[in-house]
TrEMBL record:
This is Terminase small subunit. Residues 1-11 have a biased composition (Basic and acidic residues). Residues 1-25, 113-141 are annotated as: Disordered.
């Protein structure tokens, strides 16, 4: 299940900022609609997906995907939209859900500028103010 290495002193689990890598889990429900497959792919790339995978929550995520796709329709029932909110919390996709699950996302590690070997920035172009010339009184007319 959970790796003790990823838990800090307070019992919070740190999820990788880069998200889950690797092949998508197999879709566990009946045939998926194209929108469901798009959502499935997006969700399994999120940091929370590492925890779902550890806990074997493929079915729960698929049910959320199916419910979310239904809730996106203009004629969706209110109870379906409420179910989406519940899934957001239980799967840690909302702030409240992240807190309830005691999950946090690791800070993004930025590469220092010295390591990004790119071309030298172009010289600063003179502004309009720099191009203006002070003319003594009476000589500019």
């Amino acid at each position: 299940m959970r790796s003790t290495k990823s838990l800090d002193k307070g019992g919070w689990r740190t999820l990788p900022a880069e998200g889950r890598e690797g092949a998508l889990p197999e879709w566990p429900l009946t045939e998926a609609a194209p929108r469901e497959l798009d959502l499935w792919e997006e969700l399994w790339a999120k940091p929370q997906a590492t925890a779902w995978e550890d806990m074997g929550q493929e079915l729960e995520v698929a049910l959320f995907v199916r419910t979310l796709a239904e809730a996106e329709r203009a004629d969706a029932r209110v109870d379906v939209k409420k179910m989406v909110r519940g899934y957001l919390d239980s799967l840690g996709l909302s702030v409240a859900g992240m807190n309830r699950n005691r999950w946090k996302i690791a800070p993004v590690v930025e590469v220092p500028e010295a390591e990004t070997a790119g071309p030298e920035p172009a010289a600063r172009r003179p502004s309009a103010r720099d191009r203006l010339k002070v003319v003594p009184s009476g000589e500019g007319a």
